[in-house]
Fold this protein.
Amino acid sequence: MVSARMFTEKDADLTPLSGKTIVFIGYGNQGRAQALNIRDTIKAAALPSPPKIVIANPRDAFSARAAEDGFESTTDWAAAAAEADVLFLLVPDPVQPKLFDERLAPTLKKGCAVVIASGYNAFYGKLKVAKENDVVMVAPRMIGTSVRTRFESGEGYPCFVSVEQDGTGKAWKTTLALAYGIGALKGGAIESSAREETLMDLFAEQALYPTIIATFREAYSTLKALGCSDEALCHELWMSKEPAEVFEKAADDGFIRQLVHHSVVSQYGQLKGSMEVDTTWMKKEFKRVSEQRVLGGEFAKEFSALDEDGDGDGIQKKLDSLYAEALKSELGQGEKRVRERLGLKTI
């Protein structure tokens, strides 16, 4: 049985951050939430020598928001890296390697802790971090807005933490201090690793959720062929938001035990049906995705090649093509008709 360590606020303190300069590279959803949280935590702790917080971001709406929030900010990546004792790398994964290796690493001081919120680039070795530096992961399992609101409410949120490179010998103390600062220890942070976070994240995106999407697509076509209307199908399968409520109950009451909130007919059908489904093909596909696509690096190579082949916008071109193909399905076309009839906005 694999059991992970969990950390709470009693396992950490903020003293490793005293007198330090904390630089946030990027002020998007996660950057803003984590910067605000750590500032509030530090203020409440009244440290004798509080850390300095700096936001590094291009001059855009995000940097304007940082200024509105009262942060010192800069557009000079190299200068920001040069003064950082802690560097939160919170720009999108595809952007990180080039930005870090070319603009940040050359001026990064020895002993600086590089903080990642996703294991992707660390696991695939895409960041060239000097051996004297720490590489730590503090990865909230929620979007940035929830990281902020749940900090403000005091309830906390789930988070993965790990030390990927301990160049200073003090990486764990720094990791837990940062997790404490952004509010990730209120509910208990789980020890993980870049490998585990990447495996689970990409597996969900490339195996679990594609299976769910395909299941809904085929269910829609099957029921449409049996005479069900687009309007009834869309509302029955997802527009009623019942699936969202089911997953919320699963989080609250347990993945299986949430079924007690359903009718007896529903409980019987779901439990018996789930045990009778032939999952042979699913196990084979899940094994292929996890071992070859994710751990074997096939996806990482494919994804990198997309950007290289597209003159900088290859990923977006491929996404546009995939969306166009998906929307041609019977489900896609049926939903379009229903939303237009109801006057619902489509993003």
